[in-house]
Design goal:
Shape: globular
Radius of gyration: 20 Å
Structural class: mainly alpha
Number of helices: 16
Strand order of the largest sheet: 1-2
Strand content: under 5%
Amino acid sequence: EGDRSNRWIMMDPNMYLRAFAIILNVLDHLSPFGLRGGAPVLMILVGYNIARFQSKALFKGQVGLVGRSLAKNLTLYYSVLLFWFIYRHNFSLQHLLFLSNILAPHIETWKIAYNSYWFVEAYVQIYLFIICAFFIPRVRRRVSDRPLLFGIIATALSIGLLFVWRQTWMCSWNTMSKGSGYPVFEVAYLPAIGWCLYHAKSPVSRFLTFTGAILTIVLLSLFITPQENWNALIEPLAVGTIPILLISAKIRLSAPAKISLFISTVAACSYAIYLLHMVPFILLGEMGGYWKKGIMPVILGVALGFAGQWAFDRLLRLFARNKQMSTEVVHDSEPFKG
């Protein structure tokens, strides 16, 4: 029997795409050469993982089970938020209620971190909408009969909502953060596409869904990108379309055991990495003056994410043991968990 460390292991696209997207996100924030596009990939995975891991519970009306995974993720988010409230000596009800990404264009807000965790806010808003929708028996029956049609309708409505949003509440390009964050109305079509990619089962529906998803992202990217910012279009457009192909074709990649272990670890810790990767850069920069972006902030940010996820898991196990809770695992539907 050969050395097990030399084996090649097959990886699910949900795993390597999640790791790829979060590393891309960290590089965008902390390196001078980072590529944009990690957030669109994660948003697509939001819808894909809701469909993959939560459809059965949603179709049965078991919204409580779905809400449990949300509550667990919010525990870590609120812990990080509490740290920023204490460190900044400030309190924000908008961040606490996941509304800063919507209210920012018209209500003065302050950023608790690089971009105020707009992604978590958009994710929670989408999640709550799904829970409320599937709480209605008639909606559950209709969607369970034709889940792909539901995704197509949701995509169309999300695109329409984007145009209404831009003409009403927010009338200029990303005024909330000058491009560093997005309200849910700007990105809701991406998880809707992810839902469609999972529920397209036949070869024909997969091909049509894949083609429609690519065309939707390309046309919307061309439309919503201002002329003075064309250089910001190429990277998220190219990076965002590749996962659609990989997910749609369910392409599994193979890698040596050690590399696969690293990728799976990054994927498993991706939520904590997202929440914590800016902390060393911000704190050290504010304490010691200007701190350049580069490899060291990237390493420190990812390492803190690893440590944060490890500590969070240990606390959850301790809490479960003390409360004699069930050890049954409930799959998360957000992009950071598989």
